[in-house]
Amino acid sequence: MDVLIITAPIFLLIGLGFFAVRKGFTPPEAIPGMASFVLYFAIPAVIFSNVIRMDFTTLFDPRFIGVYASATLGSLFLGFGLAHWGMKRKSLHSAVLAVGIATPNSLFIGLPVLVQVFGEVPTVFTMAVMVENLLVVPTALILMERAANDGTSGVNWRAVGGRVLKSPLILSILAGVVVALSGVTVPVILDKMLTMLAQAAGALALFVIGGALVGMTVREVGTDTLLVSGGKLILQPALAFLVLMCVPGLDEVSRITILLLCAVPMFSIYPIIGGNYGFRRQCAATLLITTLTSFFTLTLLLSFLR
To answer: What ranges do the domains of the chain cover?
Structure first.
């Protein structure tokens, strides 16, 4: 019952977003704007506020970064191998499936889950964001670009680099580091504004996820969907657990954060990414199935962690 107190409100908010859009209380055209607010303002406020208060000896913990990078990148390449050599899918198809396995939705689902578990945003969340945006997402984009170009070196490096450098998450981390190192004190009024933005992040992010699920169907569900959903919700956290067993010394908050972020569904733009290569409907169905299934897998995982 204690675990349901954590997971039930999260998925009720997702359901509320779905209900609001499905019944017309919230127009579907409003969802992208809400998502932009969360991505460009609310979550950067969370990250910036965390960074300026952090002990910089904990901002770059090589053990945390190593474990999280190993679990996410390991699942990316393992997922590609399972799809390409195990299921005989073509390289591009395999790359798209692998991206679904490897990319956690740490911002829209992971962050609210962590807040429910710890009562606040753990400082190590910033490191997870760094790993995803500086390492995992660029590697995933490169993998798909190379596959789309028949394994040649024809990767649009400018597009990949631009995506990283323009990321509001990376910019908020850099801004926080600059402010912290300069010794400048954030004015009280600005600090209160950042706090208000941060408080809006979790609930609105979940509402957006629910609204975005409207219109998605399960018509494209097949073995590929089962591979990606199982890979994201079972394979990746299992791989994280194995890596954690080999890296002693991480504190409990770090271990739980890694396991929970690896256990959430793939990022919400997965259908958009897949759509760029002709797999939009399949990726949308996979996102829907994975998000619904994650209620049960996250609840089960939390029951073991508590």
So the answer is: 2-298
Long-range contacts of 19-24 (CB under 8 A, 24+ apart): 19/210, 20/207, 20/210, 20/211, 21/210, 21/211, 21/214, 22/214
> Is the CB of residue 172 less than 8 Å from the CB of residue 47?
yes
Structure tokens at 11: 């998925």
Contacts of 115 by beta carbon, 8 Å cutoff, 6+ apart: 121, 202
d(CA 206, CA 87): 34
Q: What is the pLDDT of residues 11-35, one digit of tens each?
A: 999 999 999 999 999 999 999 999 8
pLDDT digits (tens, 9 = 90+) for 167-207: 787 888 888 888 888 888 889 999 999 999 988 888 898 99
Q: What is the DSSP string of 72-109?
A: HHHHHHHHHHIIIIIS---HHHHHHHHHHHH-B-IIII
Tell me yes or no: is domain 2-298 CATH 1.10.3570.10.
Answer: no
Residue 174, number of CB atoms within 10 A of its CB: 13
Dihedral Cα 126, 169, 68, 54, nearest 10 deg: -10
Q: Which two tokens stand for residue 31?
A: 């969802």
